[in-house]
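FORM 7B: Structural annotation worksheet

SECTION A. Query
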Amino acid sequence: MRLFLAAAFALATTPVLAQAPVTTGEVISAAVEDFIRPGFHELATSAASMKDGIAALCATPSEEHLSVGRDGFKAVVLAYSGVEFVHVGPLGSNNRIERMLFWPDRKGIALKQVQQALAAEDASATNPKDLAGKSVAMQGLGALEYLLFGTGAEELAGSGGAYRCSFAASIAALIGEVTAEMDAEWSDPQGISTALENPRPDADDYRTQTEVLEKLAASLVHGTEAIRDQRVLPILGTSAGQPKPKSALFWRSGMTVPALAANFSGLSDFFAKARFPEVMGADNAWIANGAEFEFANAKRALAVITSPMDEAVADPKQFKALEYLVIVTKSLDTLVGEDLSAALGLSVGFSALDGD
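SECTION B. Predicted structure
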């Protein structure tokens, strides 16, 4: 029914497409040059600023510097949420996905390891080089959120939080290092960008434009599946009437909904800037219009969720908005997964979360 409504919506609105379809090569170049490279550069810039902000907090503890450090964290969360579905290239190598964000973490491994380090004041956790050799659960945004917003974080504003701040600074340095590496790799004229934009039959990674386009298209479905299966469904809970608000990513910092909004916004921007609507041609305008319709639905649903997550799940209106996001992602799975792939003659049997 939802797909029927989306199709009806498409017919009732001005078609997105007015010009001749672009080429596969133009889609690949647009994806890299207009979305991926700028997105990862923004992430690296935000991470560098966060690193500096937390370093200033450690040097001169105060409420003001704590606020700056926390704001820096939030900026990185938003920047990362906008590109985290792009597993093609640097993010998908060298355990960077897990190093940036160890999630899902159903057993609470990150929390346990961070709390153990805090209790023991493990000096190795305050050295980025040593921390890089430890569990990835201790290195990313999840661990850093607890240090900045979790129990005892108020100590960061005074001298009593010296160890905690040094630990946070160590994580921020690693995140800065990882994001700078990814930015450099995307910017390297002999690197991943060239491999994607100029595939060769004898290449070790990307041999044809169709192969590259399939990888880029799979990124869209990876994003919608991850939002549903790793972000929203855990909050709703597996048993009826038993939501789990503390299963929400970034609930301590209040960034659950802003991160979700950035997830959807990133997917929508990628879909448009990579010129997927154009490459599908006018006959498939209903797919692009349907996707645009669903992205707008997601934005409206997220606007309803205004309370902290423990309060939001207790409010029927906000809880229904969360449930509605599941419906939206399933519709997007079909539109930007099956329908887009069929329109472009791509393989439709991949499972995005498996990385295929």
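SECTION C. Observations
The CA atoms of residues 6 and 290 lie 5 Å apart. The chain has two domains: 21-201, 208-347.

SECTION D. Sign-off
Analyst initials: ____
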